[in-house]
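Why this split exists: single-chain examples teach little about how molecules sit against one another. For that reason, every record in the complexes split bundles all components of an assembly together and asks for one structure covering all of them. Below is a record exactly as it appears in the raw files.
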Amino acid sequence: MANQLKVAVVHAIIRLLEQHWPYRRIARELGVDRETVARYDRLRQSADSKPANPTPGSDPGSHPKPANVTPGCLGYEVPDRSLGPPSRCQPFEAVIKEKLGQSLSGQRIWQDLTDTIADTSCCVGITGNVDADPDELIDIGDLTAMIDYLFITFTEPKCMPEANTDGDPDGEVDIADLTALIDYMFITFEEPAECQ
Ligand SMILES: [Ca+2]
Ligand SMILES: [Ca+2]
């Protein structure tokens, strides 16, 4: 109860201060120390000058934000909350923006992107895994796949960039790539070209 009384007295002090009563009169009316009145007056004035810490309801219309949010704090927190997990499109941001600039449709951009991803992600590190085995081994299976494609069944490798073992910039797969593969496996042991 004592605490409630104290709050009521504080409210009375503030109300009377707002009515421009002198400290001495407020102190006498409420039975409190004059210095106490002065202290609450200082608090009241600092609260008025700093909207960061107002008495609830005492400052209507001045600040719609929560009282304990300092300027800039809210602006900092909102992007944090909205970030969420990184977008899977983020690595392709520049490409997507460029295509948007070309007024391509979303479906067309998606198709281009999936083509690009399929082209680049199937070839990792060095070329030579022509049969696309998941362990990325370069062995007789790759040589067979290369010969099949070039001379026998003409079955395209799953990942054409893997078959461009001589690393020519056009990505063509021909006898030079077969030679490079044979070189690596049996002759010079020189690694096939890097994936492009
Ligand atoms: Ca292989
Ligand atoms: Ca080639």
